[in-house]
Amino acid sequence: MKFKIAFVAAVATLLGGGLQADPVALMDDAIGLSKTSVFDDPAPPEVAYSSLDPKQSGILPRFWEDAPPQVPHRLDKFLPITAKANKCLECHEEPEKIGKKAKGKPTPMPESHYVKSADDELTVANRRYVCTLCHAPQAEVGTLVGNSFRGDQ
Ligand code: HEC
Ligand code: HEC
Question: Which CATH number applies to 54-133: 1.10.1130.10, 1.10.150.20, 3.30.70.240, 3.40.50.300?
Fold first, then answer.
């Protein structure tokens, strides 16, 4: 019985304590990621994207299995992707070479990026057409918020 009373008292203290806690004050420059006042409108810092041509870029590490690979080479020459023109496909659409990556050659898009017709012909899936939705260009930028996520564990 003694224990029960102590427990109720502890809960009451917790509840009471919670109600009496001072409101947390946040300064206007500690709310956003930019570390300036939320009333400012700072220009985003300029970042330099890769200027390497695909032939020299090599490939980048994958963060976890099935993560979309990062784009290792320059993109400025190959964008925008429009309904009529998709330069990425000119190099990466090689249905006959799926899974056969050769050093320095474009990695063939995987089978998941195609739809198969009744006669087994592969056509690029519409939902994969805008490559940069998932494959991000890379630039040297600092980490805004660190984290220790590791997809391989
Ligand atoms: C002129 C040919 C060419 C064009 C155009 C091109 N790429 Fe590439 N891409 C390559 C080559 C070559 C590699 C591999 C480099 C290596 O292995 O050394 C590569 C690698 C990649 C990779 C990394 C694959 C992996 O195995 O990790 C991605 C993702 C990629 N490209 C996406 C794109 C996207 C998105 C576009 C269009 C905006 C594009 N590429 C346009 C030739 C090209
Ligand atoms: C909806 C997201 C999405 C879009 C859009 C997309 N991809 Fe991918 N891509 C992925 C994911 C996820 C993987 C890794 C898993 C897999 O192999 O399916 C991948 C893998 C790849 C690979 C590596 C293949 C290998 O065998 O290692 C290449 C190259 C590639 N994509 C190119 C492209 C190109 C070029 C386009 C545009 C025509 C494109 N992707 C559009 C998500 C996407």
Answer: 1.10.1130.10
| Cα 136 to Cα 129: distance, rounded to the nearest angstrom | 14
Residue 152 token pair: 């391989």
Longest dimension (CA), the chain: 79
- For residue 87, the ligand 1 atom closest to its alpha carbon is 5
Ligand 1 neighbours by CB, cut-off 6 Å: 54, 57-59, 69, 71-73, 75, 78-79, 87-88, 90-92, 103-107, 131-132, 135
Residue type, 108: P
Beta-carbon count within 10 A of 88 CB: 20
Task: Tell me the pLDDT band of 142, cut-offs 50, 70 and 90.
Answer: confident
Residue 92 has pLDDT above 70, yes or no: yes
**pTM to 2 decimals?**
0.82
Q: What is the pLDDT of residues 98-117, one digit of tens each?
A: 999 998 899 999 999 999 99
